Structure formats: structure tokens, C-alpha cells
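Table 4 source record.
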Amino acid sequence: MMSIAFLLIFQVFFVSKVIHGQCTSNGTCVCHCGNCTSGCDACLPGWSGSIINHCQKSNTFYDKASENTTLLDGDFDTYVEDNSIPPYIRVEFQTIFELRQVDVTLELAEKIMYTVYVKSDPYRRSESIICSSFTSGYVSMKKTVTVTCNTPLQGKFIEIVASSLPRTTLKVFEIERFECSNGTYGENCSGICSAGCNKQCDKETGDCVCKIGYWGRFCNRTCPLHCIKNLCDSNTGDCYSCNNGYYGVKCQDRCAVGCLESCNMASGLCFCKPGFYSANCSLQCQSNCAQNECLQETGHCSRCENGWFGVKCESNCSRCGGNSSCDIKTGDCYLCSVGYFGNSCNKKCNEFCDSSKPCNKITGKCQNCKPGRYGEYCTEFCSRTCKNLKCFSNQSCVNGCEDGFFGSHCDSPCSAAVPSCNQCELVNNVPVCQRCADPLYLDGSACFECPDYCSSCSSSVKCLECKTKRFYGDTCNLTCNKDCLNRTCDITGHCVHGCDDGKYGSRCDQDCPSGCRTCHNSSVCFEGENGHEKLCNKCSRRKKLILNCKSYT
């Protein structure tokens, strides 16, 4: 106890002598660990992040609630839950806050949409105060979700609302908002502000104002080597002037080898040696120019070597079909290789064209498309709810719709027309439900809830399957016989795995004969009890029959 008290006094004293939570550029940080003397083994409550730099990630929501304090206590095993319609959990804070991002640890339910509100009025719910929404998709799990607001919001309440269909229980374990201590930045506050920073860097990005001689977003880059006196613009790294022999905004370039004399230090312009061209003589004449000669101003060749074309003889006819022949001036091909089109055969047919029927040589239009695509160039997607992913050029589905959708484009869910409907069809241009989602049943054209213990049913009085194998009956309201093995039975009450010792019958409601442990009926015994066991085995071996043990006792 004394050692713990001493450690707490030491931490309070140490923090009071330095800027709270500061890390210096040499990696020295204020300690927010449970043990600060022999290495960080765990972070103090309300702090997290990398233990290498002693837990610099502060949970600014820690212990700041006026109610529902369980959600801000750092304990991920405690939770608050609600099963109202729709379920919601609201937290009131001690002061008004601005929120850009929040971490919510909750138990996600399958296909449920969750909406996070930040507000001053506890009962208000409108689009303008929605931070963001998220869903678990088809997965149910306990998870920490990082929610980034569409725009920063202010308020005194955070409210999490789950969608009401399908009905669910909202269970939230913890709500956290993190901020890095001074001198650190990044998602886990593991980044240390650069030594080139003149002041505290941005806690999210690490951006800062630079000292002289540094530049860049993080001020972690030194001015270019050939800047005079190593001075440069802190935002761009551009030099104010260059050492002799270099040019460019960062003095990064030497005068070109094609220069006859030294180049202009600002522009790099110079007069060229033979075989070079451009304003700064940095380019060589094309090798396909006849005798490697070109005009110094433009680099245009006077003549080309055989097999090349263009003003600089820079292009060949390798993409042309046949004998790779092309027009010497324009480069237009006379024939294209398979899979290409265009005057120069330099364009590929769309990969979704039907390869058995190549695209048009001039336009590239597809004759037919692969499944799932349509359009002149097969660039448009058929609806995913079209059967076999096939559609006509007007997007209507060739083979009709997948289950659960209707309409010519199969883009209308059955459940949007008839709540809880899983399959429907158009009758006189009106969607009519054919099958409901479990646990509901179809009555006429509407879906209704099955009895409580049914997982599926055909009516309010007829279950097709019970939620658990321990019940049976038309509405799954009867308990399986306790003598059924594992106490399980089918929906008719028959014991599917057999009977406990001493019982027989489809419902295990009949007693075996005296002296039998297991039996087939009242006269045929499978296994005897205690002293009868050897006699049963002996008789069975002799007669090769299953005998009535009682008759031999």
C-alpha cells in the first residue's frame, strides 16, 4: 500500500512540473502508465495508446457523464441496454462539447442500422444533428466502431438509436472520444512531433509551423543541399537562390550535358552541342532520325529510318496487323491485330465484349456482351437482381428477377411493397406476396407473426418448426417428454434420439420390463440390469436372438 501511495504522489508531482501530456522531439514523454519506474506495462484509466511513449492517447469523455456513467468508465464488461421500439441509449454529459469523431463499443446485431445523434435537446431527432450512421451488415458481434461525423456537432447529449426492424435489443458497453497529448499525434498518438516544429504540431495530422532551415508538412525535411545558406520556403522547400552550376526551384538540376556553355541559373536555358535539342539542350535527337540529325528548336527529324514514322520518327507500326505496315506520315494501320481497334490499332476492345465476336475495327463497339453487361461498349452493369445477370439494352432483365425483387429492372424489393415479404410477383401490375420472411406467415396478401415459440409456420395455429427441439405441438407450446434422450423431440413429440434407460416408445412414455435397462417393446429386451446382464448375453449368443430377459430370471 505504501509503495502504491508513493507512486501516485510521484506521478502527481512529476506532471505538475511539466506541460501536461507533453512529448519532446527526442521521444521523452510524460508517463500515463500504472508503473512509470520499470517500463510501461498498462495505461492509467482514461489513457491509452502506445505504451512505448507512455500512453499519450487521452479519453476526454472518461468519467464525464451526468447519467449512464457505466458507458464512460473505461470498463468494457459493463453495459447499458434497451429493447424499446426503436431501442435507444442516451448519455448526458456534464458540459457542452464539440464532436468530430467518437468510438462506440456495442453489440452489433445483424442487418440493424445504428444512428448517432449529438444534441442539446434530449428528445430532438433530426437530420441536422446526426453525426453519422453505420450497420453491421450480415454479422453479429461485439465491436468498437469509430464514427466520424459528417460535420462537427456541438451538444450535451449523445444518443445512439437502432433501427426498429427487425426488432432488436441495443446493448452499448462504452463511448469514448480520444485526443493526443501535446507533442504527439496520429490515430494511436504514437507519432512524435518533428524536431523541426517551432510550436505544437497538429494532434491529428502532425502538421506544424517550421523552424528556419526546415520545410514540409511535418517540418521534418531540411532545405535542399544546393540552396544558398541552406535557406528555403518552409511550405514548398523552394530555394531562394542556387549555388553555381545548379538551377531549378529547389536547385535540384545541373546544367544539361548538351549545353555548349554554362546555363542560365534561373531557367537552365543554353546553346546546344550538335546532336542535342530543346531550350536547355537536355534532349538528344531520336535514334530513328536518319544520321541522328534533328532541328535544334523542335527536335523534328529531317528524315526517318525505314519502319518508323512521325515528325521525330518516334513511332513504329508494331501494333498494326498483317505485316505491320502503316502510312509513313500518319501511322494509320491497314489492318488491326485481334483485340485492337482504331486507325493506329492502339486501342483495346472492351474486356467485356463477347470474345467470340470481336469489336468493330473503327468504333470499338461490341457486337455482344458478356453476362452482367450491356450497352454499345458493354460498359453498363445489369442489375444484380436480374436472374443469371442478363439484361437487354434497355436494362430490363432477360430471365426475370431473383427471389425478393420485382419489376422490369428487378430493382424493387418485395419487402418495400409488402412488409416482411421475401418473394412476390406482379398480378395485374400489383405486387402480390408469395412467401413471407421467417418467423412470419402469409395470410391472404399480408404477413403476420408466427406463434412465440415457432421459427417458421404456415398459420397462427400451425408451426412448421419450433425455435428449440425441447418443445412440440401445433404452436410449439408443449414440452418434450423428460424421458426423451437429451429431452429433445420433433414437432410431433416423437423422441428423435431415443429414450433414457428403462423407457421405450416413440414418445418414451412406456416402461421396459422389469430387469431390462433398454428394450424394444414390452417383450423384447436389448440389455439387462446388473445380475440379469450375463444371462441376457448368454442367451443372445446361444440363440442369436434378442430375448426377453425377464423370462430367464
